[in-house]
Q: What sequence folds into this?
């Protein structure tokens, strides 16, 4: 095991400049000194000393299709040489065709007509969805969202994100959401199956509508004070928590009974992360709004958006100028998005992701058998979780996971004579969950390599 790593003289000059000139507000340094990276390809990034790191978080699931994906990079390069820029009030082919692709797919899957509205990223698209929802519900500003849910850090998005620390210094934009428990079975009541716990959580939510004195429902006129329920079908920052398969079907039944919209936030879990285009597809429900971003362009050019049912977003109810961004539906982003859809349609991409995810999960389950500090592993497609606990296999152990992350970033682990680092992401309610979001293009040998590197970190953590 190596000593604490010291920044090179060249890196230290840059870090000193960063400390003086860069806002700390948009950056979190999880290790000291921070690494400065110089190149990337596939599942790897390299620092300025040309040390390779296997990345198992892929820019918070923004780079689903691998760093520097040649096909998607070439789509961007081609667009730069034809129509790199155009004001968003003007039309271009890419915007229209990408909208059609998403809307037709939704019609085929959900049986619903709808339209697509673009913006430059996930949080901005959440803001647009709030406008659509408020507008469709006569200005209702109250929302339901989940404990452990994350929807962004802009003022509106932070109001429906469960972490108070994102709102603490800024007050509220409108009203804070009412946060509802998510069916986190590993930390739920004992004695229930996963499906029973899912039903229990829905029943507890449904109690809010039994009487006017629970504060959300007026039975005399049959109206709720709440406009929508914002859901991440699989929680992202909350720790890649995967609910029981019956949960959303039962929840949607309660929402439909009371005229409350379901907004599916697919920013982290969309674009085949879970083996389907949208993670909500696993649960046999029809969302009213879908919000997307990140992996649409593989992180190459910021582009996000929403799909909404026709009744919510047609030009009569949501007319021109309802919301606007200078860079919305930019041609560089739509070109990459179209190529991504073409690339994933040429093979059974979902089946490929599910097979790799099953293989990776089996490897995690093997590690769990051998290391008692792994309290829980789970996964859906290549959205995988590994919860690090104390010796009892249950008490959250953030300190040990922090140690593992730091050790992984030393870049000193040896596998078959190759020196490597490992990039992990930390999530979960107690910040003790490894949230694994590898490239969907990851090879089986790279999965094996990732498991070997994880094993080395677990050995270090349990023998230090």
A:
């Amino acid at each position: 095991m190596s000593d604490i790593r010291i920044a090179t003289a060249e890196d230290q000059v840059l870090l000193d400049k960063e400390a003086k000139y860069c806002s700390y507000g948009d950056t979190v340094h999880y290790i000291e000194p921070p690494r400065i990276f110089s190149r990337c390809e596939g599942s790897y990034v390299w620092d300025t000393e040309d040390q390779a790191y296997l990345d198992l978080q892929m820019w918070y699931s923004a780079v689903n299709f691998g760093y520097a994906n040649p096909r998607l990079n070439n789509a961007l390069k081609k667009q730069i040489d034809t129509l790199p820029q155009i004001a968003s009030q003007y039309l271009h082919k890419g915007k229209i065709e990408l909208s059609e692709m998403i809307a037709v797919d939704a019609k085929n899957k959900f049986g619903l007509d709808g339209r697509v509205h673009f913006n430059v990223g996930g949080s901005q698209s959440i803001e647009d969805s709030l406008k659509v929802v408020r507008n469709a519900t006569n200005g209702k500003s109250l929302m339901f969202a989940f404990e452990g849910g994350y929807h962004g850090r802009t003022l509106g998005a932070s109001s429906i994100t469960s972490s108070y620390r994102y709102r603490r210094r800024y007050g509220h934009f409108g009203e804070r959401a009412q946060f509802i428990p998510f069916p986190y079975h590993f930390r739920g009541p004992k004695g229930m199956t996963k499906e029973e716990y899912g039903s229990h959580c829905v029943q507890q939510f449904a109690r809010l509508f039994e009487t006017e004195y629970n504060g959300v429902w007026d039975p005399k006129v049959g109206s709720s004070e709440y406009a929508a329920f914002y859901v991440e079908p699989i929680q992202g920052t909350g720790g890649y928590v995967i609910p029981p398969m019956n949960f959303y079907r039962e929840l949607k039944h309660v929402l439909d009974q009371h005229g409350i919209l379901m907004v599916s936030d697919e920013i982290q879990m969309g674009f085949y992360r879970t083996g389907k285009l949208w993670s909500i597809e696993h649960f046999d429900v029809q969302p009213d709004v879908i919000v997307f971003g990140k992996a649409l362009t593989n992180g190459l050019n910021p582009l996000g958006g929403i799909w909404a049912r026709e009744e919510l977003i047609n030009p009569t109810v949501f007319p021109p100028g309802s919301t606007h961004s200078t860079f919305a539906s930019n041609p560089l982003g739509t070109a990459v998005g179209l190529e991504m859809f073409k690339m994933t349609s040429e093979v059974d991409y979902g089946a490929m992701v599910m097979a790799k995810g099953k293989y990776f999960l089996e490897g995690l389950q093997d590690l769990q058998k051998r290391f008692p500090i792994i309290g829980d592993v789970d996964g859906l497609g290549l959205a995988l979780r590994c919860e690090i606990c104390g010796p009892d296999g249950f008490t959250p152990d953030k300190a040990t996971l922090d140690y593992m992350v730091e050790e992984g970033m030393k870049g000193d682990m040896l596998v078959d004579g190759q020196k490597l680092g490992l990039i992990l992401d930390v999530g979960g309610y107690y910040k003790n969950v490894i949230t694994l979001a590898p490239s969907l293009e990851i090879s089986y040998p790279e999965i094996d390599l990732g498991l070997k590197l994880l094993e080395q970190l677990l050995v270090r953590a349990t023998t230090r």
